[in-house]
Amino acid sequence: MPFSSPPANDVSERGLRVSDGHDAIAFGEEFGDLVALAARVADTPFAWIAFAEGDAPARVVARFGVDAGLDPQLLALPGTLDAEVPRLTVADAREDACFAGATLVAAYPGIRFLHAQVLLGENGSAIGTLAVADRQPRPSCGRDTLQALDRLAALGERLVERHALQRRNRIATQIMQAGFSAMIITDEDGQVTLANRAAELLFGMRGRRMRGMPVELLFPSQLQVDPVAASAWLHAADVDAALGRAPQARLRAFGPNGDVRTLEASRCTWQLGRGQGKAIILRDITDDLAQQATLRQLALYDALTGLPNRTALVETLTSHLEATDAPLSLALLGIDNFKTINDTLGHAAGDSVLQTTASRLRLALPASAHVGRFGGDEFGVLFAGIPDDEVGAHLDRMLLVVGEPMDVAGSPIHLEASVGVAVRAELNTEDSLPSASELIARADLALYKAKARGGRQWCRYDLGMRREVIERRMLEIELRRAFARGEFELHYQPQIDLASGLTFGAEALLRWRHPERGLLPPAAFLDVLAGSALANDVGRWIIRQACRDAASWPDVGGRPVAISINLFPGQVHETDLGEDVDAALLETGLAPERIELEITETIALNPDDNASRALAALRRRGVKLSFDDFGTGFASLSMLQRFPIDRVKIDRSFVRDMLDNRGDAAIVRSIVLISRNMELHVTAEGVENHAQAALLRGLGCNAAQGFLYSPALAPRAFDKWLAAQASDPVRAPWLAPEPQDG
Ligand code: C2E
Ligand code: CA
Ligand code: CA
Fold first, then answer.
1. Residues 512-534, buried b or exposed e (16+ Cβ, 10 A)?
2. Which atom of ligand 1 is nearest to the CA of 523?
3. Which of 169, 442, 557, 640 has the fewest CB atoms lying closer than 10 Å?
4. Which CATH topology does 10-174 take?
């Protein structure tokens, strides 16, 4: 068979599994030469190479003399060859039991002689077949031919390997090109052999120009910000010689726009001939660093005032405590009644107040003082290195600057502040390490104390404060237990109609029947109770108990007796007051009109939405509201107009002195006058003698409550009181006209 004109030397369109379309042609061409050579050395008219890797369908990569239409599955000689049976020679296929029936033998091309060799892949498994065949039977191939075919098969294997390698390289190069990190590969002479797109962008140079360039030239000259550092890093010894890993470094370079960029540089090396090949990878981390810095800024600074936040201030405090023994004190400043500003003027006004306060504090204090926003309306100031006895003057200044008039949304407002301060020198170093949290806790306590003393002042932490806190905490625990054991009682103080002398209502007043200390008035515990989480539960119980007791009271003078209930601020702001009152009404069947809720200024002055809605809804259902302790606080008479109530209770302090003090008498007179004009009822509290009662009656005051009539009575005693009144009101001693007291 003449080799010069192969009749059907065609090339598979698909090629090997490892190849893509482009690959197949080059691949097929090389195998085409190989099969032609095989046919030539074996002197056969047919030769082919088929691949059948794994479970994939067999493919004929190249064929010589065989029709292109022939099924590749047949040419792959399935099941005949594998790694254990690498060679097969069939002298006459027609006489062979295995092959006689095969299409290749029985039909076209009518093969008689067949010799096939297995092709092994990289991992030693069979991947394909190289076969030669003839229409004439032959005894064998002959030794020389067999050797030549062996070599051709080996060549075929290497071709497959080479193509697989090339493909891997191409993928690696594609990945490298697509990467965001700049990559430069150098040969053993230190010349650039490859630079990816990111490297082109970073160095502002085409890859073509970089190729062949000594990396020393490219690298330091382009990284002009730090040429020395760049060069030092490039030549530094590998940290891990075995793995070819170099130290990581941060290098700075001018970016294409002339801006300074920070690069994270890593490097790996490998042996190459006499020298080393290198890959240099540069990742631009400028944006990452900027983002980290923004996050840190956000984490450590208060967005509203621009001051360091609590976290930052605590960090500074901690590092000062650890680093030096210098004097250190922490002051916490709180704006008095800040909540009122927010509630009445709006949050924008509140924000503006905080910003102004921040800048005033900053300006008023020495540069060595660290000013920060501690949260809410609290500012923290760390006085580092300032002697303890000089700190007081700075605190005075802080109070002064915050107290100066502030322009908020065009109108001037006056603020007051309180400051608590704690000094490092007083931290007990024997018991505990002087921790930041301890200093903060002390300053916080001192601030609390300054506020409790009425604000507008600074207060320094002392040991008594700690004791007080502990005592309060213990009392809180005791109160919880007392409530659980049912040691609370309600006593009832009669409320007298001044015109008729009849009891028209009673105020429920809380008592604690202490197992050892006897009956305790609210003064002994109410402050702590009202400030604890227990208040809402106790408040709910008071409503229910008062309604239960009131439900059994008889009418007096033909009219039902009302029940006045005092509320804790938390009941109005935090709980569903309406629900609690409804539940009590439902359980006892009491008419809503018989309940009067007494609210104080703290409630009325800070009417959040929850409170206003709940109180308005209750009032619509007929429940009455009265304003307790009127005249003692900041509440003005004009407030009565805004807040929908039914009754004003004049505080005991005015009634007590009204006979001797003209001022107090005038206050009582005007409260009564205005209330009556607004059609509100007025009750005078703390009426202890006839003279007070007479004067009040003369002023037009409707009602009174006080020791003149009765102190608060235990439920049984109050029942008797009512029974007596109901049967014979005339016997009430205060009804008899009295001679004026001396
Ligand atoms: P308050 O609401 O002003 O109650 C009136 C207080 O004045 C009662 O003191 C009462 O015993 C006392 N009082 C009445 N008449 C006279 C008088 O003629 N002279 C004098 N010197 N005092 C008189 P109490 O019971 O010690 O209660 C003190 C405060 O504790 C109450 O003041 C109220 O604010 C609070 N409180 C009492 N019970 C409750 C309660 O059940 N719930 C709530 N939230 N607070 C309560
Ligand atoms: Ca009251
Ligand atoms: Ca009162």
1. beeeeeeebeeeebbebbbebeb
2. 26
3. 169
4. Beta-Lactamase (3.30.450)
Average pLDDT over residues 460-476: 89
Residue 522, ligand 1, Cβ within 6 A = yes
Q: Which fold has domain 486-735?
A: TIM Barrel (3.20.20)
Does 446 have pLDDT greater than 90?
Answer: yes
Q: In testing the pocket of ligand 1, which one of 541, 566, 599 has its CB within 8 Å of the most ligand atoms?
A: 566
> How far, in Å, are 183, 441, 535, 618, 632 from residue 573 at the CA level?
64, 27, 12, 14, 22
CATH entry, 307-461, from 3.40.50.1000, 3.40.50.360, 3.30.70.270, 3.20.20.140:
3.30.70.270
Per-residue pLDDT at 4 exceeds 50 = no
Query: How many angstroms separate the alpha carbon of residue 520 from the centre of ligand 1?
Result: 12
Return the CATH number of the domain spanning residue range 178-289. Answer: 3.30.450.20
C-alpha span between 145 and 492 (Å, rounded): 125
Handedness of CA 236, 241, 244, 246 (dihedral sign): negative
Instruction: Outline which parts of the chain fall under CATH 3.30.450.40.
Output: 10-174
CATH 3.30.450.20 maps onto the chain at 178-289
Model confidence over 315-333: pLDDT tens digits? Answer: 999 999 988 888 999 999 9
Ligand nearest to the CA of 493: 1
Is 701 close to ligand 1, i.e. is its CB under 6 Å away?
A: no
Could you tell me the distance, in angstroms and rounded to a whole number, from the CA of residue 730 to the centre of ligand 3?
28
